[in-house]
């Protein structure tokens, strides 16, 4: 891959242009990389070289100083080139931001400065359905031991966000640790049908020590809670929405180019070009319209959240709950649209386009794999309960 311009973008438009450049580089050979399933070291190096990993970082330390609405659009753009790398970037930005989510003011400043200056790439071993990572209080430090069935980013990460439960309590503790250390073993067992380059296999954590002062949000071994701590779910759900829609965008645009240049008109249709077939015009018009609508909803919900992120220390449960309902709606719509787009594009491609070499199936496999993360029916339920019963969702690991 050729080297990108090293100057840090200044405006939202410049960042989107940079993301588009990254997208085009990733799109080259994406189908072959998907088949090979190799660790994406070069692709993560591209994200670092482009500066996209520091998009949310402080300007004074070389970061972009940008906010979540732009970050979601950047994730979407990158995912259009390669869904796996879009997910990795999205998760990285989430864990980069996690210091703001749960950290103390001092921790936020220290983590963001160090991560931005060094262009750390974040991974995370934070599967909430695993309850087997136990944290032992060892005086001036804590010790993580156990296993997580998923650790997205694994070998390509510089640091990993760990999560576990303090022994004898129900207190969860997050901490950032170096990924390359004897106490962390990545098992390279991610072998799923989609998102094959996300390095999302299991991990064993053995006696990983963390100073108490690095336990996110703790002072004198006591966590200082605030409503903003619960913004992890709506924020990561919008990350999901972003790369679902990005993958759908990549599928639609790649399919349209194939139809324009290679699909043959049906021999009994009376048209000389596939692009003049009435059913092709209807198909692509339908899919484009649905994708535009889902993207517009996602952008609107992201903008609505700005007030919450800008007033993180004062956000109320009511503000958080109302935002979660809107996120749930965006997640439900993005899931349905992305699955439809990535499946139905085959109707406009023709039988020859099912060749393994072309890899059009990867778009659907990628969306289908990750949209099973949590049942979309429960997102629709949150929206329905709010509409019919004026209920706001209680914060959980999934709502």
UniProtKB/TrEMBL annotation:
InterPro entries: Acyl-CoA_DH_C (IPR013107), Acyl-CoA_Oxase/DH_mid-dom_sf (IPR046373), AcylCo_DH-like_C (IPR036250), AcylCoA_DH/ox_N (IPR013786), AcylCoA_DH/ox_N_sf (IPR037069), AcylCoA_DH/oxidase_NM_dom_sf (IPR009100). It comes from the Bacteria. The keyword Transmembrane helix does not apply. Residues 22-109 form the Acyl-CoA dehydrogenase/oxidase N-terminal domain. Pfam families: Acyl-CoA_dh_2, Acyl-CoA_dh_N. SUPFAM superfamilies: Acyl-CoA dehydrogenase C-terminal domain-like, Acyl-CoA dehydrogenase NM domain-like. The keyword Oxidoreductase applies. Keywords: Oxidoreductase. Transmembrane segments: none annotated. Residues 238-373 form the Acyl-CoA dehydrogenase C-terminal domain. PANTHER family: ACYL-COA DEHYDROGENASE, ISOVALERYL-COA DEHYDROGENASE, MITOCHONDRIAL-RELATED. This is Acyl-CoA dehydrogenase family protein. It comes from Pseudonocardia ailaonensis.
């Amino acid at each position: 891959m050729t080297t990108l311009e090293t100057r840090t973008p200044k405006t939202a438009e410049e960042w989107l242009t940079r993301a588009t450049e990254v997208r085009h580089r990733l799109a080259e050979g994406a189908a072959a990389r998907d088949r090979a399933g190799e660790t994406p070291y070069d692709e993560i190096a591209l994200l670092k070289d482009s500066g996209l990993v520091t998009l949310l970082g402080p300007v004074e330390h070389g970061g972009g100083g940008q906010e979540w609405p732009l970050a979601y659009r950047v994730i979407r753009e990158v995912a259009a080139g390669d869904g796996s790398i879009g997910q990795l970037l999205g998760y990285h930005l989430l864990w980069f931001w996690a210091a703001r989510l749960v950290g103390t003011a001092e921790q936020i400043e220290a983590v963001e400065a160090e991560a931005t200056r060094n262009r750390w790439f974040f991974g995370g071993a934070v599967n909430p359905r695993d309850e087997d990572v136990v944290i032992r209080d060892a005086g001036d430090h804590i010790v993580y031991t156990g296993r997580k069935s998923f650790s997205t980013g694994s070998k390509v990460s510089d640091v990993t966000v760990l999560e576990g439960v303090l022994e004898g309590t129900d207190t969860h503790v997050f901490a950032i640790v170096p990924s390359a250390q004897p106490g962390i073993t990545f098992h390279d067992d991610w072998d799923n049908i989609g998102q094959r380059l996300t390095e999302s296999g299991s991990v064993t954590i053995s006696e990983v020590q963390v100073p108490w002062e690095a336990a996110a949000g703790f002072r004198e071994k006591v966590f200082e809670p605030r409503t903003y701590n619960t913004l992890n779910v709506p924020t990561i759900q919008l990350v999901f929405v972003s790369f679902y829609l990005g993958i759908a965008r990549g599928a639609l645009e790649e399919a349209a180019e194939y139809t324009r240049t290679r699909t043959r008109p049906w021999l009994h249709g009376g048209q000389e070009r596939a692009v003049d077939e009435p059913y092709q015009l209807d198909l692509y018009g339908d899919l484009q319209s649905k994708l535009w609508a889902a993207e517009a909803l996602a952008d609107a919900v992201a903008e609505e959240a700005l007030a919450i992120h800008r007033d993180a220390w004062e956000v109320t449960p009511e503000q958080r709950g109302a935002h979660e309902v809107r996120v749930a709606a965006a997640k439900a719509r993005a899931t349905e649209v992305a699955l439809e787009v990535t499946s139905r594009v085959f109707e406009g491609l023709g039988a020859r386009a099912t060749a393994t070499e072309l890899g059009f199936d990867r778009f659907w496999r990628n969306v289908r794999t990750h949209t099973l993360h949590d049942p979309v029916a429960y997102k629709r339920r949150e929206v329905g309960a709010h509409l019919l019963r004026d209920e706001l969702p209680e914060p959980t690991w999934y709502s």
